[in-house]
UniProtKB/TrEMBL annotation:
PANTHER family: TRANSCRIPTIONAL REGULATOR, TRANSCRIPTIONAL REGULATOR, MARR FAMILY
Keyword vocabulary terms for this entry: DNA-binding, Transcription, Transcription regulation
Pfam families xrefs: HxlR
Name of the protein this chain belongs to: Transcriptional regulator, HxlR family
Lineage, opening ranks: Bacteria, Pseudomonadati, Bacteroidota, Flavobacteriia, Flavobacteriales
Presence of the UniProt keyword Ribonucleoprotein in the record: no
Stretches assigned to the HTH hxlR-type domain: 10-108
Top-rank taxon, per record: Bacteria
GO MF annotations in UniProt: DNA binding
Amino acid sequence: MERDQTEELRALQDTLYFIGGKWRIPVINAICNGNKRFREIERSIPGITTRMLSKELKDMELNKLVKRNVYPETPVLIEYEATNYCRTFGNIIQEMIIWGREHRRVIVEDKFNVSDNIDEKN
């Protein structure tokens, strides 16, 4: 079966656009780990600003990744939840976490091996 490289490139670019931001994956991860309220999500992601989280949540809602639920209580309660469509990305995120852990291990291990070799030569 011949592969359509143009279509594959377009699909990769769409994916990279989706995950390309610094905060998109951490926000999805936070929501999928049970954080539903704005402040819970914000506290679970060190370094994210209120403005950036607000922007990410709005963008994710427009892209059908997050559902915003407003409950008419006093004060108004707003919760966010990952859509089923968003959850289809969960396996990819899990694989990225596994790869990231392994990559860090390889880099740290290589760093120590390089310094060990330098020490042995001196």
